[in-house]
Design goal:
Blueprint: H1 2-17, H2 20-35, E1 48-53, H3 61-76, E2 81-86, H4 97-103, E3 108-109, H5 136-144, H6 146-153, E4 160-170, E5 172-175, E6 189-192, H7 196-204, E7 208-211, H8 217-223, E8 228-231, H9 233-238, E9 247-249, E10 255-263, H10 264-268, H11 272-307, E11 311-313, H12 317-326, H13 329-338, H14 340-350
Parallel strand pairs: 1-2, 1-3, 6-7, 6-8, 9-11
Antiparallel strand pairs: 3-10, 4-10, 5-8, 5-9
């Protein structure tokens, strides 16, 4: 009898684990029960708790940015706010986290900008266009300017407050074979986070894009579910991806950007003085995160090279131009998806002409 009960419990646990939406709803229900009848104004003796969930390790630019926000938020509010940071997909995987935020199971996230297309805001994918940013300065100018502000405002209608953009640098691309020419990607299964723009530019080179959760990427590479991936040096190093990829090309073809977001109902419902202090903390945490991204990636790349686990290739200016030319058609194809106007505005902001 006891073994039967144990087996039944196991089956129920498996069903629960396999249904992320159910996990989110259960978390929301519990959170609602705990908060019922205790609005911000009447809970002066208790700190306001912000659950900040993300999918990278604590020692990445995003991980350090989240910890910096926690430090500053708790400092500036005098302990009236407590920020709980949950890194490395401890609470939700990248496919689940936006739904969790919208339902109120967590209050803050910092997903990659490609995650907004599935909820109907495809314009963010313009940031995924290959070679759209000539350098970090071009990226920061675009995201801090009218284009970036316009993108964040588009989140309002989805119950999301867009707070800031966090930089995580440029993509490398890797496989277990040398990638010197665009044709070298022919037939390779390459992991992407979900961007249709990334899907298009990889297919243009003959690759077969595969959507896989970031937390599952190492195993997918190790077991051959996918042949390669693209990501920043800091993410390669902290996730040990270089240990299961024999060749890395420092192409800098794409840029990884995060949007720091909050549940809009929660954010707008904060007391005005508290929200002002949190906005100050976010601005300073953003400046900090963006300031360390380049060095973190440079240090990670140096560590990857020193490890000897993967052969790192840095293409010449001429080789990089060959890749850029091979991907020009992606821009035309993206116009109908993300909008011709936003692509033109990005090109103007970054002084990139195609």
């Amino acid at each position: 009898m006891s073994s039967a009960r144990a087996a039944d419990r196991g089956r129920r646990a498996a069903i629960f684990e396999a249904r992320p939406t159910l996990r989110v709803l259960c978390a929301v229900t519990l959170a609602g029960m705990l908060l019922l009848g205790a609005p911000f104004a009447t809970r002066a003796q208790q700190p306001i708790v912000i659950k900040f969930s993300h999918v990278t390790t604590p020692d990445t630019p995003k991980g350090k940015g989240a910890e910096k926000f926690k430090e500053l938020a708790e400092k500036y509010t005098g302990g009236k706010v407590r920020v709980e940071v949950y890194p490395n997909s401890q609470l939700y995987k990248d496919k689940e986290e936006i739904e969790a935020l919208q339902l109120g199971a967590v209050q803050m996230l910092a997903p990659s900008t490609s995650k907004f297309a599935p909820i109907g805001i495809k314009e963010f994918e313009a940031l995924d266009l290959p070679f759209i940013f000539p350098d970090e300065a071009g990226y920061l100018k675009a995201t801090k300017g009218p284009v970036g502000k316009s993108l964040l405002q588009r989140l309002d209608g989805k119950g999301i407050a867009g707070l800031a953009f966090w930089d995580n640098g440029f993509h490398m691309i890797s496989a277990n074979k040398p990638l010197r020419k665009p044709r070298d990607l022919q037939g390779l299964k390459i992991r992407i986070s979900g961007s249709k723009v990334a899907d298009a530019y990889l297919r243009a080179m003959g690759a077969l894009p595969q959507i896989i959760a970031f937390s599952e990427l190492y195993q997918a590479l190790q077991t051959g579910v996918v042949d390669g991936c693209e990501n920043t040096p800091s993410n390669y190093y902290t996730q040990k991806l270089h240990e299961v990829q024999k060749h890395i090309n420092v192409m800098n073809h794409g840029h990884l950007s995060y949007a720091v977001i909050a549940n809009k109902k929660f954010w707008d419902g904060l007391p005005a003085d508290i929200r002002a202090q949190l906005e100050k903390a976010m601005q300073e945490a953003t400046d900090y995160t963006n300031s360390i991204a380049s060095k973190e990636n440079a240090d990670a790349l140096a560590a990857i090279k020193a490890s000897g686990k993967s052969e790192v290739y840095e293409p010449t200016k001429e080789e990089r131009e060959e890749w850029r030319q091979a991907l020009l058609a992606t821009y035309k194809g993206a116009e109908s998806r993300v909008g011709k106007d936003i692509i033109a505005a990005l090109q103007k902001e970054t002084a990139v002409s195609q």
